[in-house]
Amino acid sequence: MGLLNPLLLLLAAAAAVPLLLHLLQRHQGPRVIFPALRYLRRAEKESARRIRLRQILLMLLRIAAVLLIAFAAARPFVGFGGAGHSPTAVVIVLDNSMSTAAVEGERRVLDRLEARALETLEAAGPDDRFWLLRAAQPDDPALIGDAAVTALRVRETEPSAGTADIAAALARAAAILAAGAEGRAAEIHLLTDLQAASFDARLPADSSMLPVVLWHPGTEPPVNRAVADVQVGGGMAPISGQRTTVAIAVTGETGGERSAEAEPGDTVGDPVDVRLLVNGRLMAAAAASSGAVALLSLPAPETGVMTGSAEIDADALHADDRRYFAARVQPPPTVALSRAAPFIADALDVLAEAGRIRRASTNADVAILPAAEGATAPGPETALVALPPSTPTELAAANRRLNEAGIPWRYDAPAAGEARFAPDQPDPLLRGLADARIRQLYPLTRTTEGRTDSVLIRLADGSPWAVRGTRANGGAYVLLGSPLSEQASTVPTSALMLPLLDRLTGAWSLALPPRSDAAPGQEIALPAATTVVERPDGTRDSIAGATTYRFGAEPGIYRILEDDSIVAAYAVNPPAAESDLARLEEDDLEAYLPGWALHVTTSDGAWRRAVYRERLGTELWRPLLLLLLIILAAETLIAASGRGRTTRGSGRSDSADTAASDTNRASPARAAAAAAGADEG
Amino acid sequence: MSIQPADRTSSARAASPRSRRADLLKPHELAALGGLEFVARQVVEGFIAGLHRSPHRGFSVEFAEHRMYQPGDDLRYIDWRMYGRSDRYYIKQFEEETNLRGYLLLDVSASMAWTSAEGVLPPKLWYAKQLAASLALMLVRQGDAVGLLAFDDGVRAHVTPRGGRRHWHELLRTLQPAEAAGRTDPGTALRDLAARLRRRGLVILISDLLVDPESTRLALRFLRHRGHEVLVFHLLDPGERELPGVGEVRFIDPETDEEVPVSAADVRREYREAVEHALAEWRRDLAPQGIEYVVVNTDEPMAHALRAYLHKRERLG
């Protein structure tokens, strides 16, 4: 047995009040002139024993009531199962990933998770301490507070557009408790929909054996379809004045990742309506089944930034029923070739014929320079695409030209043997490069430090094959590690030659990002002239000298502005993996959280019993309250019996009497009636 | 036979205290009528006028005077000769001469000044004075001699018994200034009275009997032993029957300043029983001695007490 608030036992001192009143009472009360004392003495003599017993009983009941109140306020408990607990430091890990916005029955999953968190907080004691970690917002600070403040924050939590990293959140919670528990019992309350995608990483074994009380709905996830991907122009930047296509991938209840990788035609279920909106206008519509890709044709767009979204009918999870896209539409660039190069020339002709470029001899937007010939001539408005020479004898001259053009790279002597491209190219259009072989490779070496260049294509050993940067005069350049000739590699004779040249003459040389997609919370490098970033809801973030920007949790189109002119646009969409609502089996949890003291429950009622592992026992306030009520009822009955005598015994109405006065010797009725005001206790 | 009232306007005044029989008025109504003499006279007049309702036939044998007929008067006493002469109804009233000596013993101790409802109910002493004056008038009108002895723990005033209206006024002058003070010891007064009385007579004790009962009963028995008829009027304020107030109260005896703290609610029932017990004791102890004992509540009309006197007087012949 123990007390949760032992200091409140001091209230027991108030028990002296009824005792003092009892002792002082007989010496107080109004003085009343009353001649018939002869009868009164006889009456008192006859009832003295009963009166004394009754008054002592009343006094004892009142003292007992005060003691009971003090005892109940101290919150006593006995040492077997109950609601009391020792002071506890609790980290509530609340999974607010996009999947928790799914509606099951008539409630969102997140609402149920929040309800459990609030139950935790309602059962909190005054010495408990809480932190709230929103698992889908790992960059947010851990919010510390008491139960009331934390409850407010729990209620304010809304589903994020991002994914949750449960393992990282648990590791962070353990670190918080290790530093902040300050002698309290510590435990983690993990509230999650147990979505498999949230358990990507395995957590190292926890040596502290922190109890992790986990609640999940324990139900089958609802059916969910999603717009998994939107690609404009098959991944190639749209050209103004030319029709282009938009590929919209629809995934279904079988899971986002698997559906995204499904072959065309591998469809599931009934088709759903797919709608394409550009700049807010409905441009095209089609029907597609889960796993299928809908190809919608777009009219020739004008130069500028094209933004829009693809959407399907709403289902249990609304957040993935719309996906945004952004693309820059440009006129075809003019391209010049400085020396004869058969495969390059042929490919340029094909691109020119397709309208992707225009051929030029001077003042071109892009100059392709085999052996870096002519690298020094163009001004900063011309982007250079420099290729190494076909023979090593020209290597020195080529490096001299690169140096004179202000390109901080040089070619090393050709490496022996064949080389391969890395299989995981960042540009999905060029992932086929993994099959190509490189016979002639001039390793690229930086000549100066401190410049920010980006590697566009890497080799299998990690070394760069294609880099992009800015020349000394401000113009852009792209440098390749091999000539585009049949002798140097298999690339010129493969289907990748045209996409590669499209990238070289288009997005890469014009310093445009190949894709404009980003995830919620992702950080990007801003164009130099950026002054404002406009969020999807129209609010604007001023950029004062910052070179990077972190997107918010809200999906939509983020516009990068220079004053009022749009510089670029990004489509921020939730990860496609979040659309896969498949849940982890409880049996698999141990594999992801090895060595953690897991206590898993799915029942609403069981949650209250599962949390606060260090129980102090059953609190006794309920039986004490019942006992107090019984004592008060008994006291009322006994006191009323005395008052009842008054009512029955008096032949006159007490209300007829008026105020009492000690000095009013001729008005005893008034004085006696005033005595009625002073209750017996 | 239809009897018309002599004064046709009297019914219009029926509601006012002055138009009703004074012996049936409540004490507070009597107090509003006027002084001691007037009230006593009105009470007695009213009481005598209403005697026809009583089972007693009246007590007078000698014609004394006429008065106007009032509704309810016995038709046997209508003077038909007067009716023939004046066309009005008159009632004949009679007087009887006796040689009875009446002694009024009036308690003027401090407890008699008490009233339970000041301004509403007159003190016991006021009631006692009115009763004494009324009884004295009735005795005088019967031709009896009447004396007065006011006492507390000693004799405070004494009027030798004599008859006649003039003597009644002298008696009133003694009654009028009597103030309540001192402790009560009727034993002393009764013994003093017994020493003074040489002829047997009627002794009427008017007191609240908040006294030592043993010595009082002894003195009353002594009087009875000397051949006197004794009538005891026990004045009781309604506030003495029920203990007033609730909660802790310090009750103080006005005669002794003794203080008794009690919880009024706790002893109320026992108090009521104690009062009833005391009254029963008085009745039980006095009745075997042939002493008439009458409890008079001071909120009741005086007719009750006068009727008790009349009953006693009738038995005396």
Structural account:
The complex is a heterodimer of chains A (681) and B (317). In chain A, helix 2 (37-73) packs antiparallel against helix 12 (621-649). With 681 residues, chain A is of the alpha/beta class. The radius of gyration of chain A is 41 Å and the shape is elongated. In chain A, 26% of the residues lie in helices and 27% in strands. Chain B is built from 10 helices and 10 strands. Chain B has helices at residues 27-31, 36-49, 80-86, 124-141, 165-175, 186-196, 213-225, 238-241, 264-286, 303-316; strands spanning 62-68, 90-95, 101-107, 145-151, 155-162, 202-207, 229-236, 248-252, 259-263, 292-297. Chains A and B meet through strand 2, helix 2, helix 12 and helix 13 of A and helix 8, strand 8, strand 9 and helix 9 of B. Strand 2 of chain A pairs parallel with strand 8 (248-252) of chain B, so a sheet runs across the interface.
Main traits of this protein?
heterodimer; A: 681 residues; alpha/beta; seven-stranded mixed beta sheet; six-stranded mixed beta sheet; 13 helices; 38 strands; 27% strand; B: 317 residues; two-stranded antiparallel ribbon; 10 strands; disordered N terminus
